[in-house]
Write a structure and sequence with these properties.
The chain has about 450 residues and is of the alpha+beta class. The chain has 2 domains: about 70 residues, Immunoglobulin-like; about 375 residues, Alkaline phosphatase D (PhoD) (Purple Acid Phosphatase, chain A, domain 2). Helices cover about 20% and strands about 25% of the residues. The strands form 4 sheets. It has a 7-stranded mixed β-sheet. Strand 9 and strand 10 form a beta hairpin. Helix 2 runs parallel beside helix 4. The protein is globular, with a radius of gyration of 21 Å. About 40% of the residues are buried. The model has no long low-confidence stretch (mean pLDDT about 95). Bound molecules: fe (iii) ion (FE) and calcium ion (CA). Calcium ion binds next to loops.
Length: about 450
């Protein structure tokens, strides 16, 4: 695009052929914002599908579809959504999104690693354009490249999305203003972060309320679905303290018990707990990035925990779980990604997570592609399940998780594709789990 402003028309209609237009207007695609537009349409009817389309010059966009949420005080009969994460472009094809686009869903939740920041490499399924991302132009080009994928386009066109980021939208295992690489000054790192966050805002369906202010961007927010469910969409990257013990998957080193360590930051944690305390939702969903269960990843006598996930911030983890119990939060369900594998976990109060009372349920979704073709029964599978009674299910197949929520029951289906390194993988429901309202913990169905 030339560096000039372009007028863009938009229309919202009640039908897929865009004949019953209910609202329309014009906006400006500005080169300062990568020619992106963020139109916020008020006054639509609740709980129904709308279709939308853009026009610039003589070109019209594909028609997209979005569903408005139910009225605030209604109790909808059901919420149907899918959640996904981790779509490394070089590791495979986004076949899973092609399947997701055909599902019957109200919305899609993305938990981060929407792009990956690494330089293009040879001998992959397909290649990133450009070097490791650093400048605003680099981040913009990477987002643009990902958005060329037809399956990803189809999933965006089919549903409204609720998005949050993890680390790779910016830099691997970032923690606040601290790089995983030594000798990167916080000032330089924040300049890079400002570029990453701006490009994310430009290219993702988020509201003007999330407009970044330099290297800061408030992405955490609450999204209610009537009184049936409320999503607390979290950001566990921007405000966290540094990973303890030098990051990685490590034996307990003491640093994971630092009472000042935080994944959420004080303000976000207070906001989260205040919101949960006042929530009237039947299901309280934490849509966030990293696994909360304290899972020993080392088979045998050794114990190893991921210092980048909640177990690296154990006191913070316990504080959230204790709050669920003490305040009798209705049906807390934690959604996560990042780890490129599927998990169903009971979240217990006690430190070992073995015999304590289950206070919440966790569904961790695998990657769309990251890690390449996965497996139904990964190495260490039996040891992990034997040594971690909180784990009900684990595999490393690719795909997403489909959830159907009613006032009485939550159901999660692990939707997988057997391969992503070549096209055409069919969709398989590998496992299904249910939570009965009022009783934390998932049961295999
Ligand atoms: Fe990832
Ligand atoms: Ca072990």
């Amino acid at each position: 695009m030339p560096a000039e402003a372009v007028e863009v028309g938009w229309q919202v209609a009640e039908d897929e052929r865009m004949q019953k237009v209910v609202q329309k207007g014009t906006t400006v695609a500005n080169p300062d914002w990568a020619h992106s537009v963020h139109v916020e349409v008020a006054g639509l009817k609740p709980e129904r599908w709308y279709w939308y389309q853009f026009k610039a010059g003589n070109d019209t966009s594909q028609i997209g579809r979005a569903r408005t949420p139910p009225p605030a005080f209604s109790l909808p009969a059901a919420l149907k959504f899918a959640f996904a994460s981790c779509q490394h472009y070089e590791s495979g094809l986004f076949t899973a999104y092609g399947h997701m686009a055909k599902e019957d869903l109200d919305l899609v939740v993305h938990l981060g690693d929407y792009i990956y920041e690494a330089a293009g490499r040879e001998k992959q399924i397909r290649k990133h354009v450009g070097p490791e991302l650093n400048t605003l132009a680099d981040y913009r080009n990477r987002h643009a490249q990902y958005k060329t994928d037809p399956d990803l386009q189809a999933a965006h066109a089919a549903f409204p999305w609720i998005v949050t980021w993890d680390d790779h939208e910016f830099a691997n295992n970032c923690a606040g203003a601290i790089s995983e690489k030594p000798n990167v000054s916080p000032a330089d790192y924040l300049v890079r972060r400002a570029a990453a966050y701006k490009a994310y805002y430009e290219h993702m369906p988020i509201r003007r309320a999330a407009l970044p202010d330099g290297p800061d961007c408030r992405l955490y927010r609450r999204i209610p679905f009537g009184r049936l469910a409320e999503f607390a969409v979290l950001d566990t990257r921007q405000y966290r303290t540094d990973q303890p013990c030098g990051d990685g998957t490590k034996a307990p080193c003491g640093g994971e018990l630092d009472p000042n360590a935080t994944l959420l930051g004080d303000r976000q944690e207070k906001w989260l707990l205040d919101g949960l305390a006042h929530s009237t939702a039947a299901w309280n969903i934490l849509a966030q990035q990293v696994m909360m269960a304290r899972v020993d990843q080392a088979p045998g006598k050794d114990e190893k925990y991921s210092m980048d996930q909640w177990p690296g911030y154990e006191i913070n983890r316990r504080r959230i779980l204790r709050f669920f119990q003490e305040r009798k939060i209705a049906n807390p369900v934690v959604l996560g990604g990042d780890i490129h594998s599927n998990w169903v976990n009971d979240l217990a109060l006690d430190f070992e997570g073995l015999n304590g009372q289950t206070v919440a349920t966790e569904f961790v979704g695998t990657s769309i592609t990251s890690g390449g073709d996965g497996s139904v029964k990964p190495k260490n599978h039996d040891a992990i399940l034997a040594e971690n009674p909180c784990v009900k299910f684990h595999n490393t197949q690719r795909g997403y998780v489909r959830c159907a929520v009613t006032p009485k029951e939550w159901r999660s289906d692990y939707q997988v594709v057997e391969y992503v390194t070549r096209p055409g993988a069919p969709l398989v429901t590998q496992a299904s789990f249910a939570i009965e309202s009022g009783r934390a913990g998932a049961q295999r169905t």
